[in-house]
Amino acid sequence: MRVSREFDETCAIPCFKEKLVRKLQQQLPPDEVLEEARVLFAALSDRARLKILIALQDGEELCVCDVANVLGATVSTASHHLRKMRDLKLLKYRNDGRMAYYSLRSKLAGKLAADVLRAEVTI
Question: Is the CB of residue 83 less than 8 Å from the CB of residue 102?
Answer without folding.
Answer: no
